[in-house]
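User: Hey, my collaborator sent me this sequence without any context and asked if I could get a structure. I don't really work with proteins. Can you help?
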Amino acid sequence: MLLSGGLDSATALAVAVRRGLECYTLSVHYGQHAWRELISAASVSRALGAVRHQEISIDLRSIGGSVLLEPRPVPGPDDASRRFGIPETYVPARNTVLLSLGLGLAEVLGAYSVFIGANSVDYSGYPDCRPEYISAFNRLAKLAVAEGSSGGRAIRVEAPLMRLTKGEIIRLGLSLGVDYGMTMSCYQPTDTGLSCGRCESCLLRLKGFEEAGATDPIGYVGRPASS
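Assistant: No problem. I've predicted the 3D structure and written it out in structure-token form, which is a compact way to encode the shape of the chain:
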């Protein structure tokens, strides 16, 4: 399970746990501003009963190409520049890198599923969060590992939240016992761990909680966390 520490991946983990799967969680510190999400990921992994949590560090800052990796403020959605319609918060090839790491770990563990919290309904339009991308990666995964390429069982990427709205994701997670107070979605939280409330990820999260008829338990700048 690729676990970012955000509400989507936390919900996807809860789905896998409910299916009775033995879950191993993997988080990646790739140089993102929001390094605090890694603390959230470890907490979520423990709370939902994963067998083991692992963190890997790579440096995507050496490639760059995203405001999430650069030493400047993350803009709001109305201020962000776009290239080919994709906002500058997109990290080039991030999910390809992360899924490749997950694929390698799955092969070592003898696992046949790699879960990701990708969603293509309420999202920022990233190309690597779309159904066609997951389908293409699954074709690659069959050829990329020893057993699958030898005619045996393939490792498959599963994205159980792909066609859900953010509100539907939150309602599902609440029904599965996810404590969203542990999660972090903000692209650039404060040093004290408050979410900014203005980046696109925060706005999508807040919209989702409103649609779900629930209160977001985390703290935002100017608003304390719910008790």
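In plain terms: The first strand starts at residue 24 and ends at 29. You can pass these tokens on to your collaborator as they are.
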